[in-house]
Write a structure and sequence with these properties.
Blueprint: H1 2-48, H2 52-57, E1 65-70, H3 72-81, E2 88-91, H4 93-102, E3 107-118, E4 122-133, E5 136-150, E6 153-163
Parallel strand pairs: 1-6
Antiparallel strand pairs: 1-2, 3-4, 4-5, 5-6
């Protein structure tokens, strides 16, 4: 009986630090998700404000991984007009930031079903979106960001989104 109690006490001593570590990791993950969500909100606000500088600051400055992919319906329409059209279109965050800065019309990107997954060093953000120009939806689809936790906080390292209607 004494051996069994000793074993149980020993097992509880081992489990205590592991539980504390899990709680600390969960707390850090919650803080990271909140910080990433703040980047999402800054992104949306910068578009509405036509603030290309703030928008650009949310990206890793030395990366340009930006791809848009036409969904099947959109691609069929484009192919009908231009048989040589590509389904995947590369671009850059710099081009988008310039578009945001110089657009003469009100613009906005609305996000739905935002999902964030992170381990504290890297993160993935996925959401459905509508992009509006002058109050009219000009694109809708799904978008994903790959993010990294840089020295100065969370930054978008790459972006991929679908083009559809």
């Amino acid at each position: 009986m004494r051996a069994l109690l000793s074993f149980i006490l020993f097992a509880m001593c081992l489990a205590g630090p592991a539980h504390a570590a899990d709680q600390a990791a969960t707390g850090a993950r919650v803080a990271d998700v909140a910080a990433i969500h703040a980047v999402v909100e800054q992104f949306k606000a910068a578009i509405i404000a036509h603030d290309g500088k703030t928008l650009g600051s949310l990206f890793l400055q030395d990366h340009n991984s930006w791809l848009s992919v036409a969904d099947e319906a959109a691609w069929a329409q484009v192919k009908a007009r231009n048989p040589k059209a590509r389904k995947v279109f590369p671009s850059t965050w710099k081009s988008f930031a310039e578009f945001v800065q110089t657009s003469n019309k009100p613009i906005e990107e609305r996000f739905y079903n935002v999902r964030i997954d992170t381990n504290g060093a890297v993160a993935s953000v996925w959401f459905d979106f509508d992009f509006l120009e002058d109050g009219k939806v000009t694109n809708r689809g799904s978008e994903s960001w790959q993010m990294v936790r840089a020295e100065d906080g969370w930054k978008i390292s790459s972006m991929l989104f679908s083009m559809g209607d």
